[in-house]
Specification:
The complex is a heterodimer of chains A (248) and B (461). By secondary structure, chain A is an alpha/beta fold. Chain A contains six helices and twelve strands. Chain A has helices at 24-35, 66-79, 81-89, 98-103, 205-218, 231-243, and strands spanning 8-13, 41-46, 58-61, 92-96, 106-108, 114-116, 123-142, 145-161, 169-173, 183-184, 186-188, 191-194. Chain A is globular. By secondary structure, chain B is an alpha/beta fold. Helices cover 36% and strands 21% of the residues of chain B. Chain B contains 16 helices and 17 strands. The two termini of chain B are 35 Å apart. The chains are: A alpha/beta (248), B alpha/beta (461). Chains A and B meet through helix 1, helix 2, strand 7 and helix 6 of A and helix 14 of B.
Chain lengths: 248, 461
Amino acid sequence: MTTGPLSMRLCHLYPDHLNIYADRGNIAVCQRRLEWRGLSLEVVEVGLGDPIPADCHLYYLGGGQDRDQALVAEDLERKADPLRQAAEDGAVVLGVCGGYQLLGRGYAGSDGRRLPGIGLLDVETTAGAGRLVGDVVLDATLSGQTRTVVGYENHAGRTHLGPGCTPLGRLRRGHGNNGEDGCEGAVAGHSVGTYMHGPLLPKNPWLADTLLGWALAHAGHTERLAPLDDQLEKSAHAAAAARAGKKR
Amino acid sequence: MGMPSLPRGLAAGAARGAGRLSQRLGRGGGTTLPGLLLNLLRPESTAEMARSIPGGVILLSGTNGKTTTARLVRAVLDASGTKVAANTAGANLERGVATALLNADGAEVALFEVDEAALPALTAQTRPRAVTLMNLFRDQLDRYGELEHLAHRWREAVSALDPSAVLIYNADDPVVTEVASGHPNTLSYGLEDPRVGRDRLPHAADATECRRCTAPLRYDMVTIAHLGRWSCPACGWTRPVPDVRAIRVDLHGLDGQRLAIATPRGPIELSLRLPGMHNSYNAIAATATASAFALAPESIGPALAKREAAFGRAERTHIGAVRVTTLLAKNPAGANENIRTMLLEDRPLHLLALLNDRTADGRDVSWIWDVDYELLLDGDRLASLTVGGDRAYDMALRFRYAGFDPERLSIIPSVPEALDAALRAGSAVGDIYVLPTYTALLELQAELASRGLAPSFWEDR
């Protein structure tokens, strides 16, 4: 499907283990939104034991079951240096749910075990009593713009931010990072972590294009992203926001 | 919980009365309310009523196929002249089982489909004579949590079983096989025809690692999601050779299939009016369950052959000149099988996809991104697409990102109006296919009933 020269490379980390909340939807959104603009994307899949390439422009980490996340955490810690280097150079890193926790400093499980994180985000996660589940509506801020983002959350971890990062946004609905401070997600440079799936990107085209814009700039493209007809995306966004918090 | 238990007769009387009242007030069929009340008034009722069934209790559980398989087992028991008490489709929590037991006067055997999460409690209460464990797939993550969590609870349920109880299980599912491995009295089933298998796992298959040593499993054949002929190359743990095996599977589109099944008591040739490989599994699950009850092979085939589809499971009705085929699609494994089954049809497909996000559907609609709708777009098989339900726009987006032209898409949240639009689109070929989630299926059935076309679901048996 790719025509012309390659526009950017996306590294999908652990697609076989971190895919529980339909993470492939986020990858499909990156693929299509570039394709519709005549740009092309190569997706590099990296599994357990595979080395992480340092030359990708966007890195994606999804969510997994506890068992899978434990497997991944140890593997990722061993080989994260190229990822840390790429992030430092300006590549975009997006972690959703379990992927968010893995981008942080670590996860203290309910069994007393601590899973390592790679420290791209200055956040610390501990297992809480009970899961935080439900619709989320957020006023998210990136690149100085604030927009509404909608999604769904389902996590046992309670995440607290350190001084090295800022929240992705303020909650209008939902539990967010820890159910206490009204914040959701974390941002440091071009590294973004969030508990929001649904999947995250299809109903939030502004967020998708912001991240793709950063990644394309990192890949050396200077022109602005051409606008797309996002009527469907906006309707789905509005429908999800309207249903959030409603009793069913 | 502090409240004293009411005497047996009084509790049962009150619960029955509440059910009749509910029906009279038009609040539904009373398939769960009496049981709910009974469990409150006298918590030990389920255990007491279960003990009084002379031939014992059979429980069936799994993510997909419970309702259909229970109907198939019921057909075999009916044909053998056994008087059976059963719960109605969907009433598969503790209250639904209690309601069915309340109405079980004179039954020789009780047969219940049981929600995956309710299995441990119902196993403890009913002390079943047989339990059939069918599969565990990714489903309603907001409600059930992770598959591992359910597997763990099933393991506890199995360890609490009476050693003499028969545990019937799907050997093609490594999760279920591991759950069953501690029990002394088992009967396994599986699918053996390599012609219907695939050579690689679909997207988002869960549990593809060895349950004993965590190495990736090797599959000689994949059937549905993570089901198939698996083995661990690292520690040698291998799918057991099933006691009941479908050795030949001939799928005939939506019309049904022919199966050749080997059982310890002899072979069965079977013509089934239910389509798709998921129903091949349901048929061998039913065959295994029936043969655990020493029912003769020659009586099983004819009984299963007569069974039509359960409520909304490849069910067919006519609206005017248009044939409407309804295929309940509530999780990725089930929806993928429906799509594969539709693709066996040799005609353009007019599709109505209905997505709700109510409690019984799962409120998280992420799962539609794990379904391989792309298969419908390969070869341009989709002639028209109408999407409806509370989350119609999410479904529309799913197809847009699959590559379907949004200009060709009708988005109509109202289920009755979406149905009419799909009927108009499909009128030229005289056929439409509906993929609803659970509560969308209930809405659809209510709409058909209001047009005088189908019975209400609580009459479904």
